Amino acid sequence: MAVSLPPPILPQPQHLWLEVFLQPPPCLRHHRLKRLKGQVPGKLVVAKQKKVKAEPKDLPDSNTNSQSQIQDHMVVQKKKRDRFKGTTEAEVLTRVLPDHIREDLDILIVGINPGLTAAYVQHHYAGPGNHFWKCLYLSGMIPEPMNALQDAELLNYGIGFTNIVARTTRGSADLTRKEIFEGGEILKQKMLKYLPKIALFNGKGIYEVFCGHKKFHFGLQPEPFPGCPNTVSTL
Fold first, then answer.
1. N or C: which end of the chain has fewer CB within 10 A?
2. 63 is catalytic
């Protein structure tokens, strides 16, 4: 009777390369698991995937143009204020502000020269934010509040207006020394002609320009007006 023998057991080859692709758990998603030669069977090694840098996408020119259009739209252009209602500044600079003066005044208020606003409206101390008229009333020199449009009416209270220099400028810094010297001589002639009791220089800086020094105090000055007996005061 023939006896059937089991199939021979063939030797298993050693040192085999095994690659096992397993479904990774959520924490190891997108990783490949390998069993490498010479490693302990069953030990898994995580092979990290290489990071590929994304190439920057070229923006179309339309985006750049759109951005520049947005920036241009955001620029706010300041609207120029028409200070002189259609009259140019060059025309205002040619205007001369008239004096308000007569004989036997109690006070002649002396300024340095007309500013743009005063020359435009043709009234003394008419600049925006000028506190001259409020201070004049609070000092008790006039019995009621007044404004620049009423400057000629101050003659009724014995008060007049004049300037050292007649030329209109944006500021007193635009005046030349020659203009100031010649204006001072004209002011002396006015004082001798109209003989006001007090020459009141409206501002310390104005009297400094006229007298040529800074050694004085506010209020009545110890010396009379040069060349005539009038009293000098500064405020």
1. N
2. no
